[in-house]
Amino acid sequence: MRGRAFHGPSRAPTVAVMDVPNLPDNPQDDIEAYVGLAQQDAEEQARARGWTTVRSLPPGAIITMEYLAGRLNFEVKDGEVHRTWQG
C-alpha cells in the first residue's frame, strides 16, 4: 500500500489553538451620553468621534447580533436616541 494511511477525519481546531484576529479598538467614548440626543445629532457626533459604522434602529427591530468592532448602535424612538450599545 502506498501513501499515508487514513486515520479518520481531522478535528476542527479548538478556541485554545485558533488564531484570534487583531480587532480594532472601539473609540474611547461615553456611549451613554448619546441617550436623549436627536438621531441626526447623535449620528454626526458618533462619526466625528471615530465610530466607523453608526446604526439607528427603531425599538424592537429584528437585527443580527454579530459583533462588529467600530459599530455604535442607537435605538431611536420619535427621533430621539433612547438606548446605545457597541458592536
UniProtKB/TrEMBL annotation:
Region Disordered, annotated ranges: 1-25
InterPro entries: Prot_inh_I78 (IPR021719)
Pfam families assigned: Inhibitor_I78
Top-level taxon: Bacteria
UniProt protein name: Proteinase inhibitor I78
